[in-house]
Each structure stands twice: as structure tokens, then as C-alpha cells.
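Researcher: I'm preparing a figure for a lab meeting and need a structural model of a single chain. I don't have an experimental structure, so a prediction will have to do for now. The sequence is pasted below. Please return the structure as C-alpha cells so I can convert it later.
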Amino acid sequence: MDFNQSTQILIVEDDERLADLTREYLTNNGLSVSVEHNGAVAVQRIKAEQPDLVILDLMLPGEDGLGVCRLVRPEYSGPIIMLTARTDELDQVVGLEVGADDYICKPVTPRLLLARISAMLRRSSKLKSASETAALTDSAEARHHFGSLIIDNSMREAWLGDEDIELTSAEFDLLWLLASNAGRVLSREEIFSDLRGISYNGQDRSIDVRVSRIRSKIGDDPEHPRRIKTVRSRGYLFVKES
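Model: Understood. Here is the structure written out cell by cell.
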């Protein structure tokens, strides 16, 4: 992906040396990069500046990365890559639950980080274009109805009966993808490629975590799901009629 200086990246990292090295590398590759060392200040900056992408450390003064992510998500829809030295799977799951789009464990090579940034920006650009296209098409094409479940891509909202369903940006993207392919099994490889622009490594649990959370939000039974089924060794199936 070709970058330009109008692409704004915010690095939220309290290790000043690491932040400066990362900024220098990304700047040399055509990105406009700024750095914030304090989590509480980062919350205000993300809301006000609306960067194209945020690289967010987990351990921060003022407000930790999970808190930052949770606080900005209602007002920020751009990609958030959580970057941390902690490898606890629970931290990764919680990070995804509060709205992170990707999770990378330190140490990470600058080249790999740049590749993940590129993938996230491609995905963000693709979703923006799809949303703009949907807004110009017939409303029926931008909205799916499955009984009491309604999913609207132009508004990026979903309802169960008369109740709004609170979904993170990443959860909505996944729900829309599954619903748009209702009746067809989507493999994890297809889902990763479509939503994140990267290949599935066979170990990342982010899709499984999001499916589990979506099920509970759309009234699906997590123990015996009828709407979003797990097809063993194949992937996920959104059932048209449940």
C-alpha cells in the first residue's frame, strides 16, 4: 500500500525511545506520525484529532490501553492496533472485547508492524468505500432482515426487535460479513482476508471471541447457537432462518 503524508498515525507509548524509533521508521515510509506518552491525554487527542490509525500500548500512565480503547470507541471508528509486551491470552481477549482491531506482542519488528498497519488501513479504506456505496444504493441492499434481527450497513447499526444492539466497529464488520453470506460457510481464512487483509495464522482467536460476543448480543444461544453456527473444521455459518 502506498502511503502519503496525509495518513495520520498516533502512537500511544510511554517508552520514549521505542516511540521515537517507531515514529522515525514509519515517517521514513511515508506516514505522518505523532506520539503521546500519557493514556489519559491520548483519550482526548484521539477523540479530537481522529487519526487514521492508533498504535496503542497496553501499559500506560494516566489510563491503561484497555481503558483508552474503551473510552474512545464510542467516538472513534478508526483501526486500533494494541501493542504490548504482555503475552497473556486473557489480555488479548479483553483487548479485542473493548474494541481493538489487532493485537501484536512485543518485540515486533518495524517491518511487521508496518505490514499490519498497511493491512488495517486497507481494510478501513475498503469499509469506508463499501459504506459510501451502500448509502447510494437501494436501502434494501444495505439492510438485512432475519426475523426480529435487522442489520443496516449504511447506518452501521443493528437492532433486535425494538432494541439497539451495541456493537464495536469490528463486531459490526464481522456480523455484516456473515449476514451478507447467509447460508454459506465462511472459513476463518476468508474472514481474516476480508476483514483484516492478512492471512490466518491458525492461532489467532480474535474471530472466535467476536463471534461469541455477537451471539450473546443478537439473542443467539452461546451453548447451542441457531443463528451463527460453528461448522467444525470449516468455519462459521450464518443461518438464514433460525
